[in-house]
Amino acid sequence: MKYINLYALFLMSVLYTSCKQKQTYPPPDIIKSEARDSVSSYGPTRMVRNVKQARNGDILIASYTGVWRYDGKLFTNITSAIKSPSFWDVLEDRNGNLWFASKDSGVYCYNGKSILHYTTRQGLSSNMALHIFEDRAGNIWFGSSRYDGKAFRNFTTKDGFPSNRIRLLFEDKTGKLWFGAQGENMFVFDGKTYTVLKNKDGKAFNNVWGITEDRKGNIWFGASIIEDKRGDTSFISQGLWRYDGSTYTKVSQKGAYGIIEDKNGNIWTTGADKPQGIGQAWSLSRYDQQSLYNKNPSVTEIMSQTGMLLGILEDTKGNIWFGSGVGVYRYDGKTITDFKTAAVQQ
After folding, report:
1. How many helices (H) and strands (E) does the chain have?
2. Is the pLDDT of residue 257 over 70?
3. How much is the mean pLDDT over the chain?
4. Neighbour-count burial for 129-138, b at 16+ CB within 10 Å, e otherwise
């Protein structure tokens, strides 16, 4: 009995130490600055990775010059107080907080009064945060890091994840979680099992940047497939895919970095026309709702340019916003506005 009691005391000590370790992360840094938000009639002039809409209708733009808010008249850099301005994503959560994901300095939460800064010191898995997603339970995801409002939980291959390089997450209407990994395989979690997604030839979809669900419950995504390897050389195909629950259909050879379904049921994408190559064309494309499920759906190329076209959004007025390597654009159904110069392109 004496030895049992000693073991119990030892176990309690280990558990206490373990729990204490989980709480040793320091609180987030609070950023306070006298700097005023910069205001301009022009938008950002560098890389815009993602565009979102706030609940009040303002457009939120994550760029390499900061996170900008557009109220329909002026652009305001709401991250002027942050020294590292290279942002990949922005999100307003259900509580009205604004989250910013940065290229190399972790994530930030702005509650309207102060900015809280979270890095690996606070438990984040990586200081490179490429996407932000809020699930239906209210958790905020940054790649493989899930934040429940109190602490981060980081998922790895030790937890059953097929990849340690999670880039983005999407939750469908049934509650399944779809994960895209950087340079690695796409997989889905149904609450019990992690399944790597493969085409009919058994080749995995990888390097996924965009995932969405249409009104019929089909999952759309842009992915690459390694068709063959010869030494250190990989031969890659890319395309836009649709999954109806049983079959994967390749809709287009065009890449799909950003994907949305608009209020009329059309599918919009941004992406490279070819999987590789310097100086290649990138396009903003619309796949017509009436022929969407045909073998060869009708597609309209709205814009094409040499250089990246990135994150995409339909605002409440039906305008299509999309980022690029040099700023942000808006398409109103007739004209494309380039906000870095305020010029209108036909």
Report:
1. 1, 31
2. yes
3. 88
4. bbbbbbeeee
Q: Measuring CA to CA, how many Å separate 304 from each of 163, 279, 284, 312, 332?
A: 33, 12, 6, 15, 16
Q: Are 106 and 129 in contact (CB under 8 A)?
A: yes
Q: Enumerate the domain spans of the chain.
A: 30-345
**Out of 28-37, 257-266, 309-318, 323-332, least confident range:** 28-37
**Considering only CA atoms, which of 255, 270, 256 is closest in space to residue 320?**
270
CA distance 312 to 320: 7
Report which residue type is found at 56: N
Residue type at position 154: N
User: Residue 53 corresponds to which amino acid?
Assistant: Q
* CB half-sphere exposure, 170, CA atoms < 13 A: 21
Q: Is 246 exposed, middle or buried (0-12, 13-18, 19+ CB in 10 A)?
A: exposed
Q: How many Cβ atoms sit within 10 Å of the Cβ of residue 3?
A: 7
Residue 338: CB atoms within 10 A of its CB come to 17
**Quick one: average pLDDT of 304-315?**
96
% pLDDT > 70, the chain: 89
Confidence of residue 4 (pLDDT cuts 50, 70, 90): very low
| SS3 of residue 287 by DSSP | strand
**CATH hierarchy code of domain 30-345:** 2.130.10.10
Closest CA to 151 of 31, 24, 12: 24
Q: What's the longest Cα–Cα distance across the chain?
A: 86
